[in-house]
Records
---
Amino acid sequence: MIASSVFSIRKRLFPTLASIGLVRICPSSGGATCKILLISEWIAKNPPGKGDGWEPYALSVRITIWIKFFLRHDKAIQESRSHNLYAQVVWLEKNVE
């Protein structure tokens, strides 16, 4: 049971990890553009509180990773991405483990 739970968490974190290059699915030449697309895709597929990755652990990791990414790539910040990041922080605050 624990192994399947860990696998499930890793599966949900994969797009997050991929979005900053910890998992290599973006070609090195694609860099930030590919990662931005992964972030946008995750946002589109996982509305606040629904979909994969809304557990407190996954949120805390993703929030940290996205903030670091946006600090390095400030042109990647768009209103929709910053609103989603804020929604994740609010959700985490209300759903602490």
---
Amino acid sequence: MPGRQEDTTHARRTYVRGEAESPDDSRRNTCDGGQTMADEFSRLKLLLEAMDVPEMRRDVTKVANVRWLLRNLAINNSNNTALREVFRLLKDIARAKK
């Protein structure tokens, strides 16, 4: 039934369907696509190298740069085919840093 959570037991773990299987299975180290943050950073770095972006703004470990890229990236890169993917990655990183 929608909205109703059901207890399920598997081997040694008990969890509520719809929640993480164990306390260690948190979303801290993964993003929406199931990739790790390191994978997201490396993919984003590769994509940003092919775009018209100031060198100092390519450091996406800083929240200010992520926000700047979300606001300004499309200005000089609107024809880049990877723009949507870059925005998705930036949004995933921004959510993880909150």
---
Amino acid sequence: MSEQLRRQVGDHLRGVLARAGISGTALAKRMHVSQPYVFRRVAGQTALDLDDLAQIAALTGLTIRELLPDGLLDQHFDNPSSTQD
């Protein structure tokens, strides 16, 4: 994952968490990880993995798609020319 993409995802996730009233510290406690672990991912310093996203989604009641910026999945993963018959 590129630095730009990590930051884009982190920025969006920060907004989602703020709207849900969940601080980074509270999220870290709920995830049973350190606060720096969460900070590095939300700041875009370290890439979130699917396990992180699934856990955050479960804790917030949101879908993984809702945790990601609008259009991100379509832009980066829905490429019909890359499918094989």
